[in-house]
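User: Could you check the structure of this?
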Amino acid sequence: MVDIRPFKAIRYTQKAGNPENLITQPYDKIDAEMQKEYYQKSPYNYCRLILPMEENKYQVAQQRIQQWLKEGILAKETEPAVFVSRQEFTLDGKKYERTGLIAALRLYDYSENTVFPHEITYKAPKADRLNMLRTVQKDLEPVFLIYSDHERKTLAFLQEVAKTKPIIQVTDSLQVKHTVWRVTDPQKIKQLQANLSSKTMVITDGHHRYESALAYRDEMRSKGNWTADSAFNFHMSYVVPVQEEGLVVLPTHRLLKEFKLTDQVLQGLKRFFDVSETKPTVEALEDFLKSHVNEHAFCVYDGLKAYGLSLKHDKSVYDFVNANVSKETKIFDVVILRDIVFKHILKTGQLNLDENILYVRWTKEAVDKVNRGEASIAFLVNPISAQTVAEIAQQHELLPEKSTDFYPKMVSGLMMMDISVSEKLQALS
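Assistant: Sure, the predicted structure tokens are below.
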């Protein structure tokens, strides 16, 4: 049973300045260059909390939060609320709207079959976010989850609230417009809670944050002196119905640094795929992928030549796939790419992010990086649908990292949630 609750959000005040100079992309999307840019935008930019440049970053973040609260740069609301949050954006010339709910979601162990992961996680990012939680005792960024709303009751609620006056309107650096509405009416919130209580949630973004929050919750509980209403039992979450039309998933292309598209590699690919040479242009690569959706198809580009790859309908190929591809979601392109192309044909061994593999969301960016010599070869893939991600996760199967890219990301800096020991999130009577 899903338990969502209103919370007293901590938000920037007008004293902080123009919101466009305050918000950021999520901490794990911020590179060194972006970090510098954010710092230059404002002395109160949110990057200074989620990813400080200073060495003792956790303590610095905590000191800044306290200082900004004291100075009135940040303020904690007096009334608990849930929030409706909408992102308006354009992709390939088409306009989209994605609307979801920001609320405090009770933390559930995966074994409870209420919240499901869909991706593998790693120790280092979890240790980092756990240290941040311990020090600042705030949820600085939401976890992004999806759920099914066949009855369309929460969709109707979201649309109704979006007709009222918003409390935040800001456009981010990717030209995504973010609008937020506040809901404080206890009766409306109770109805929303009833509509969501029977749902199951699937994490789309924020696996490391969610698992860090579970670890923090367990640490706090082990110290005693807590109740079911203690705020650290919850995490600030952005939840979106799978039926929301603006729920877009982009592909995540794989770029390798140390491997070449040799004749030997091409012969290896031809054993498993129908290989056709295509123009080495962004348009031709995207056209091939769009015309081969649901066919286990890829494109490969090495700076000079480009090929379309489509898995052969051949018993020997299927036998090999069944024997050599991880049981874990073997039907997925990214798994076939990893286990057949990378491990078997290229013999890549362990691939480490930034060291020998890069992940990018745009075809043009992938092509440009190869052209500039930042990678030697690019493998381009089709996206996985949100519905498929939800179904797979609820079957307790995990995809390789960077298999999905729910776009756009929720910006950081719209609000934070207090999870200090004294903070309670009361159930509505």
